[in-house]
Every structure is written in structure tokens, then in C-alpha cells.
Design goal:
Length: 132
């Protein structure tokens, strides 16, 4: 079984969200370890996955390649959208973990939107005491 700490150390995770009809939609995303045993992912604020998470926070995460090829078992979780402060926290850590590519993405977002155009999403393991 994949642990949350292993997922937090991965370069990419495959985030699976669910449509109204139950169909799964999977996307490779950046991941960070977060306080309180959660994981943080980074995505565009206007993405489909944000809309699906707002409707239903049920997700799965699995380690993967940048192209989305799964490298290990999936873990079920519960996602919540971060606050603007959470997003600032995640942006700083994206720069540390992903270095140049992180700078290009976060910096490009700021240039385009005049603010951070991404959003941090926090995922807790559903079978953990911290689960939502």
C-alpha cells in the first residue's frame, strides 16, 4: 500500500476526481507534503477538477509519471480547496520542490493573471483520523 508520505515525496501523482455520473477523470498533478498529514496538489483555479472537487471531494491519488503512467497503488482521499493563504504557502513550496519549472509555471501565472492563478487543494486520507 502506498503511504501519504510516499505520495508527498513523489514528483507527480495521478489525481482522480469523479463526475456527477460517477465516471473517473484522472490527471497528473504536482504534489507536496502538507501540515497535519495532508497532501497538497496544485492546479489551475478554473480547471474541471476544481469544479468536480467543489461538488464531491472524493478523490484518489497514485504515484505516476508526468504523462500519467501509474507507478503504484492508489489511495482514497477527501479533497478540500485551500484558502488564498494556503495557495501562497503551496506556491512557495512549489518553487522549492520543482525549481525552474515551478518558477516558470507560478511566475507565468502571476504575469498572466496579476496574481497566483493556481489553487492549492488539500487531500486527507479517508481512513486516517484527519479524514474529512
Amino acid at each position: 500500500m502506498t503511504s501519504f508520505s510516499e505520495l508527498g515525496a513523489a514528483r507527480y501523482v495521478l489525481l482522480t476526481t469523479f463526475r456527477r455520473d460517477g465516471r473517473a477523470v484522472a490527471t497528473a498533478v504536482w504534489v507536496l507534503p502538507a501540515p497535519d498529514g495532508e497532501l497538497a496538489i496544485w492546479t489551475a483555479a478554473d480547471s474541471g477538477k476544481i469544479k468536480r472537487i467543489r461538488r464531491d471531494g472524493r478523490v484518489t491519488l497514485a504515484p505516476c509519471t508526468v504523462a500519467g503512467r501509474v507507478l503504484g497503488p492508489a489511495v482514497e482521499g477527501r479533497a478540500r480547496l485551500g484558502t488564498p493563504e494556503d495557495t501562497g504557502w503551496a506556491a512557495r513550496r512549489i518553487l522549492r520542490k520543482y525549481r525552474l519549472i515551478g518558477l516558470l509555471v507560478v511566475g507565468g501565472s502571476i504575469l498572466r493573471h496579476r496574481r497566483i492563478g493556481g489553487v492549492a487543494v488539500f487531500v486527507s486520507r479517508t481512513d486516517s483520523p484527519a479524514g474529512h
